[in-house]
Amino acid sequence: MLAARFCRGDVRDKLGLATLLSQNGVTTMTVADVDGVIISGILFDAGSTNSAFQMQVGPTGSSASHSANPTVLHDLFFRVGGAAVGQTTVSLQINSNNVVGDDFWIWRADHSNGVGWTTNPANNGLIVNGANVTIYGLAVEHYEQYQTLWNGNGGSVYFYQSEAPYDVPNQSSWMVGGENGYASYKVANTVTSHQAYGLGVYCYFSTNSSVILNNAIEVPTSGLNGAMIHDMTTVSLGGVGTIAHVIDGYGGTANSSNTVVRLIK
Prior knowledge:
Layout: E1 4-6, E2 9-14, E3 17-22, E4 29-31, E5 38-45, E6 51-57, E7 72-80, E8 88-94, E9 100-108, E10 124-128, E11 134-141, E12 148-150, E13 155-163, E14 175-176, E15 179-180, E16 185-187, E17 194-203, E18 212-218, E19 229-236, E20 242-247, E21 260-263
Parallel strand pairs: 3-5, 4-6, 5-7, 6-8, 7-9, 8-10, 9-11, 10-12, 11-13, 12-16, 13-17, 16-18, 17-19, 18-20
Antiparallel strand pairs: 1-4, 2-3, 14-15, 19-21
């Protein structure tokens, strides 16, 4: 049984990185819910036809424990637009338990080719459904909903860098119910255990500088007061746009008057 399956697509070499380009809306790579998979050094490019995922680690509903021999993902990069028109719903979904990740850059393009709110749409950069998933060095940028959505228990992140989408056309098109904007780092309300250290969330609402992101980070009530998230920074780059709060209504406002806010927990 193959642990990883490549869909039909183009494999190219760019500056030493193998590049996989999705075709016909298929998921570029799927990984079975098995022990000991190692994947490293790949750039995933979204295709012009929307795909549900660029990469899916474990099928939906994966439940096996891999604590003795986890899947390990090193130096993986995801691009939606930038080289050409591309679109996907989610770049990376992790369903397997005990996955270890190191050095992810998950990017919906904000410049170069095939860029625009409706040109290279993508909802989420990373969704984690598996339990006890650990990631070292995570960067997720410019997706149109939550940059990172964490649904699994026992997760850990060590260093997180994220930019909200630059090209939000107006506030009304970027709302979660009655709240302004999608948090960059969202830990679902059903999660009871999670730890993240060193998070930086930035905004640069260049299309419409009046746009506001209410919370850079959102966690369950039980995760406040340093129980889940430690050492946070928000930045309004050049004072273009506003992040009203660091985490769930706490922390100062980053805007044109005060571009950097830090919250140490």
